[in-house]
Amino acid sequence: xxxxxxxxxxxxxxxxxxxxxxxxxxxxxxxxxxxxxxxxxxxxxxxxxxxxxxxxxxxxxxxxxxxxxxxxxxxxxxxxxxxxxxxxxxxxxxxxxxxxxxxxxxxxxxxxxxxxxxxxxxxxxxxxxxxxxxxxxxxxxxxxxxxxxxxxxxxxxxxxxxxxxxxxxxxxxxxxxxxxxxxxxxxxxxxxxxxxxxxxxxxxxxxxxxxxxxxxxxxxxxxxxxxxxxxxxxxxxxxxx
Length: 241
Ligand code: SAH
What we know:
The protein is of the alpha/beta class. It has helices at residues 16-25, 70-84, 126-131, 140-146, 163-171, 181-191, 211-234, and strands at residues 9-13, 29-35, 38-47, 50-56, 88-97, 108-109, 113-116, 134-135, 152-155, 174-178, 195-204. It starts with 8 loop residues before the first strand and ends in a 7-residue tail after the last helix.
């Protein structure tokens, strides 16, 4: 492994196809694996005088697909925090939206709050731990600069949503549903590193069309939009640090 740079900004992206437009646009160079025995891949460049490192979760060695989801998110984040000790983490990715709360395909979100909708432990003390509610740092000026919406992003281990998940997503008034953000917050909290979450809507959770069909149709456009927004964010004077 090459010598570790310390990052100003750590970008964490679950899927390689989400990361590639950012890697191309910012001419990020490969650093190889984030850590031994960890499939996550790191890329780096200096952008506007800032040392930027992007980590993609990498391919699962057994199943040969991207390590999407909360487990890959927390393990990747912990390894990247230990190696790169960033000042700021930004989780970038696609998400589901909610038309019942005014959501539409291609909406960009920079949520103020994060939670889990599929971790349920009805025992005192553990309920709040499992729900994992987390506040992102104030970033109103950045939200305006990016043209992004606010609200709550809820994470879970599944692309679909059971009726109970849906009830909790409604109770939380979630505006984004993803599989990583609240898990990254879990690791970021241990290190006291501020976390921002930038998501683009590929599908609508409360629409009759199957989530995976809308996801696949809208995925490419969302990744281009995320790369454009990331480019603005990396050069912004409105970062919360
Ligand atoms: N089926 C996809 C696999 C990835 S889908 C494929 O074949 O390529 C899930 C990824 O997109 C996760 O990283 C998640 O964070 C995000 N995502 C997009 N829409 C989502 C939704 N409605 N619910 C949960 N995660 C969603």
